């Protein structure tokens, strides 16, 4: 039976060193500090050093790539290396990373690249305007728009890839809510001031403190423009969004050269019976905590 990297790291973390200074340094290279993830200190500074101490086990089977006689390695879906595994994804022989879909999954459902990106923070990816997801979002946006004017034309949609910590937090909240009340998942819309050219030339967030859109996306609703920690409104301090995108559009302001207005499409989990979370007659949705709401897409429209 092979020892997983996670188990090996956990085992290694039990060892202690004579001094506190040595405790903070990687147990393999001794040059960098140990990696800390959500308060847990691993014994190594990186996956590279972890594999030096705990080499990836080799299976007894042969690489599934045609013509290759090297043994398959655990973590490469029956192949000897990441290169052959990625080739198999391109050929449609195996399913790819759940996020990028171009590389082989090696860290759970994700490839190494996407796993690193997810640990670093949210990322944006532009959707294909001819794709099913794009058309579905546009259709729902138009259906939900109840404004006096016709719904605006959505030019671009940016998918928000959230860090695993945010996704886990949201899923844990949903599970907890589902054990105490009937769960209700809804799509809402949130808009704020956007002072950068988000999505025009690149898929990066700005660093301006007054850009409410980027602040919300980067923090997953834990921070708003100017570092404010919550919205304030009829139901108190929390997060406000809308079932009707026309109501959210009122709050969408732009002070840049961008030709677009920006709006965030969100997923919200609330109990089916109003409690601390509220859905009022004006289709305004209130949740008290960022655990109950996550940004899913950025809609750029005219």
UniProtKB/TrEMBL annotation:
Protein name: PARP catalytic domain-containing protein
Taxonomic classification: Eukaryota, Fungi, Dikarya, Basidiomycota, Agaricomycotina
């Amino acid at each position: 039976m092979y020892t997983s990297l996670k188990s090996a790291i956990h085992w290694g973390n039990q060892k202690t060193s004579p001094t506190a200074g040595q405790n903070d340094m990687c147990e393999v290279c001794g040059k960098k500090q140990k990696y800390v993830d959500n308060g847990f200190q691993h014994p190594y500074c990186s996956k590279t050093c972890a594999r030096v101490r705990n080499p990836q086990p080799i299976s007894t089977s042969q690489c599934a790539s045609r013509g290759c006689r090297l043994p398959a390695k655990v973590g490469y879906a029956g192949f000897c290396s990441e290169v052959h595994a990625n080739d198999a994804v391109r050929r449609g022989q195996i399913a790819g990373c759940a996020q990028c879909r171009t590389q082989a999954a090696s860290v759970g459902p994700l490839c190494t690249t996407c796993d690193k990106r997810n640990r670093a923070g949210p990322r944006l990816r532009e959707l294909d305007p001819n794709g099913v997801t794009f058309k579905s979002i546009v259709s729902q946006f138009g259906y939900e728009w109840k404004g006096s004017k016709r719904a605006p034309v959505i030019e671009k949609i940016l998918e928000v890839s959230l860090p695993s910590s945010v996704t886990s937090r949201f899923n844990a909240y949903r599970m907890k809510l589902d054990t105490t009340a009937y769960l209700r998942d809804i799509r809402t819309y949130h808009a704020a001031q956007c002072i950068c050219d988000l999505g025009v030339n690149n898929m990066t967030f700005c660093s301006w403190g007054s850009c409410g859109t980027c602040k919300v996306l980067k923090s997953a609703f834990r921070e708003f423009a100017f570092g404010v920690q919550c919205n304030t409104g009829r139901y108190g301090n929390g997060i406000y969004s809308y079932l009707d995108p026309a109501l959210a559009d009122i709050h969408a302001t732009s002070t840049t050269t961008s030709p677009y207005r920006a709006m965030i499409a969100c997923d919200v989990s609330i109990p089916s019976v109003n409690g601390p979370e509220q859905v009022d007659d004006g289709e305004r949705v209130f949740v008290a905590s960022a655990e109950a709401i996550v940004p899913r897409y950025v809609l750029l429209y005219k």
